Amino acid sequence: MFITGRTDIGRFRDENQDRFRVSMLEGGAALAIVCDGMGGAASGGLASDMAAGAVYDRVMLSFRSDMEPKSIKAMLMSAVSAANALVYSKGSEEESNHGMGTTCVAAIIHNGILSVVNVGDSRAYLMSERGITQITTDHTMEEFFRSKGVVEESQVKLHNMKNVITRAVGVDSEIEADYFELGISQGDSLLLCTDGLTNYLSDELIYSIVYKKPIETAANELIDRVNAKNGKDNITAVIASV
């Protein structure tokens, strides 16, 4: 198992509000976390930093190599809830931080099982010889319009509210996270990333850059490809190769 991550401010932002954490765990497991902050000039970076740190700390404290998938699910869901409480409390305490929040996608690979939790529109992808699969579902108005059929498909991408986040860590006192669990095999790759990457690169291009490529090289190329397109957002990519 190999894991790496890279984040970049991009071409137009004054601050990088993305955060990531990666770590190998006991028993050959791996942990990856990506957060994309939102809020005021400083609050988004604070929210993503607090959330990524809270999830990381909870997992590092609780993970054991003999954990079953159901226990890993409970741990990840609890970690995101703890992060939500922390960020929400901080946002409630200070007027300058009011309304701050962050996306969060976190994954653990252990004993051939990939466990993923997410809130917001930062994504997890699984890549195998069969191609690329988006594991997570975006919590955005665009996805809501598409799933409910309330906006014509041809108009979804043009809607002025399409990028509005419908769920985020720290915005409300309670959080509803999605959880996914699937098998992962030798040779497969996992990508966690922010929308600063996926808004500029197609799934097919991401697959061609990442699958069966050295992970450091792939992470760098993903960032470079977005910047070559004059990406207007922060960019973060975390890659794990099994």
Q: What is the CATH architecture annotation?
A: 4-Layer Sandwich
Class of secondary structure makeup: alpha+beta
The number of E-state strands comes to 11
Radius of gyration: 17 Å
The average pLDDT score comes to 92
Domains (count): 1
CATH topology heading:
Phosphatase 2c, domain 1
Q: Briefly, what CATH class? A: Alpha Beta
How much of the residues is beta strand, in percent? 25-35%
The gross shape turns out to be globular
- What is the count of DSSP helices, taking H or I runs of 4+ residues? 7
GO molecular function: protein serine/threonine phosphatase activity
InterPro entries: PP2C (IPR015655), PPM-type-like_dom_sf (IPR036457), PPM-type_phosphatase-like_dom (IPR001932)
Domain PPM-type phosphatase: 2-242
Protein name: Stp1/IreP family PP2C-type Ser/Thr phosphatase
What would your notes on this structure say?
The protein is an alpha+beta fold and 242 residues long. The chain has one domain: PPM-type phosphatase domain (Phosphatase 2c, domain 1). The protein is built from seven helices and eleven strands. The chain has helices spanning 43-62, 69-93, 141-148, 153-156, 195-198, 203-210, 215-228; strands at 2-8, 18-24, 30-38, 101-102, 104-110, 113-119, 123-128, 131-134, 178-183, 189-193, 235-241. Strand 7 (123-128) and strand 8 (131-134) form a beta hairpin. The chain is globular and about 50 Å long. The mean pLDDT is 92.
